[in-house]
Specification:
Shape: globular
Strand content: 5-15%
Oligomer: single chain
Number of helices: 15
CATH architecture of the largest domain: 3-Layer(aba) Sandwich
Number of strands: 10
CATH topology of the largest domain: D-Maltodextrin-Binding Protein, domain 2
Structural class: alpha/beta
Strand order of the largest sheet: 2-1-3-10-4
Helix content: 40-55%
Length: 353
């Protein structure tokens, strides 16, 4: 038998349904705010999420322009990216290849890029032209440059080049080092036939050129990988050692934001320290920057580079004023440089020490 429902009862039921609906709505909202949180764990607060987003935004975007194409010659910089050293320093670093079309000194001097790698001689030459760039670290403190010949040529020293044809890469530190070696050996350079060359090794392999200017970490390896034996003539045999790959920045960046420069240099040196300890791994990083690289050659390049970095002389990258004095003196004696440059403007160790 149906009971008669009172007005009071109807009102109580209405209140109940309203309260239940409100409870369901609040529960749904609470569930939404906990998306991704584990059971029994509070969700990240809006403040925490904002801090994470802000941390990502705080990375300072900078560009490093290399002196040449991507290869293991620059493995320490790749390692600094892969190991997170730049990120830990608050930096988002883009590494761009260099070369004739993108000369690092000009690219950095334009103000569009913050850091570059070039030969130490190019810093002095740029300074003479009024380009205010300063070396902030030297990576290859022993030059990897050599002259080399095929084994059966019998050419093992500068004196053997008289009457022979030698390849010359004009206008760079390769030419400077070659001419300094000839001068130091006391050989009359006019008695050596010079042939301007670029990067194709065919003239050497065919015998058209008897000695080749190149890097012991690159061209020498490339010829050896073809099964050829070589003779190597080192600059150090003639008392010459010019700093090679040198990290630099514009003077105004150094003055305006020294903390940025210091963060970049020290993160870079951590990357190079890692590359020295893990040469195979660091060499492999280069393959992510260029599909044209071969792993075996890159590993050989990195391993051959380690002695040139002088890892026994800590800290890595530190420069010696005497080496800069010797380089400047040679540049002036060979008429590459006309005016002596104040070395306090040319290089600084303040970001290494």
């Amino acid at each position: 038998m149906w009971r008669k429902i009172s007005k009071k009862s109807k009102m109580n039921k209405s209140v109940f349904f309203i309260l239940a609906a409100m409870l369901m709505f609040l529960t749904a909202c609470g569930s939404g705010s906990n998306t991704g949180a584990g059971a029994g764990q509070p969700a990240a607060s809006a403040g925490t999420a904002g801090a994470s987003s802000e941390e990502s935004k705080e990375l300072k975007k900078v560009v490093l322009r290399l002196k040449w194409v991507h290869q293991a010659q620059f493995a320490g910089f790749y390692a600094a990216v892969k190991q997170g050293y730049y990120k830990d320093a608050g930096l988002d670093v883009e590494i761009r290849p260099g070369g004739a079309d993108f000369p690092s000194v000009q690219m950095v001097a334009s103000g569009s890029e913050e850091f570059g790698v070039t030969g130490a001689d190019q810093i002095l030459l740029a300074r003479e032209k009024g380009v205010p760039v300063t070396a902030i670290s030297t990576i290859y403190r022993e030059t990897p440059f050599v002259l080399f010949s095929l084994k059966d040529s019998g050419i093992t020293k500068i004196e053997d080049l008289v009457g022979q044809t030698v390849g010359i890469k004009l206008g760079g530190n390769e030419e400077l080092t070659y001419r300094a070696m000839v001068k130091s050996a006391g050989v009359d350079g006019s008695k050596i036939e010079e042939m301007p060359i670029k990067y194709d090794l065919s003239p050497l392999l065919s015998g058209q050129v008897k000695a080749w200017p190149g890097y012991v970490i690159n061209e020498v390896l490339a010829v050896q990988e073809l099964g050829k034996e070589v003779n190597i003539i080192k600059p150090s045999d003639y008392g010459i050692n010019f700093y090679a790959d040198t990290l630099f920045a514009k003077q105004d960046l150094i003055e305006k934001d020294p903390e940025l420069v210091k963060s970049f240099v020290q993160a870079s040196m951590k990357g190079w320290a890692y590359a020295i300890e893990h040469p195979e791994e660091a060499a492999a990083y280069g393959l992510e920057y260029s599909k044209d690289l071969k792993l075996d050659h890159e590993v050989n390049m990195m391993k051959a580079s380690i002695p040139m970095l002088q890892p026994d002389k800590l800290p890595l990258g530190k420069m010696d004023a005497k080496e800069w004095e010797t380089l400047q003196k040679s540049l002036m004696e060979l008429n590459f440089l006309k005016t002596e440059q104040p070395l306090e403007n040319v290089f600084t160790n303040q970001f290494i020490e």
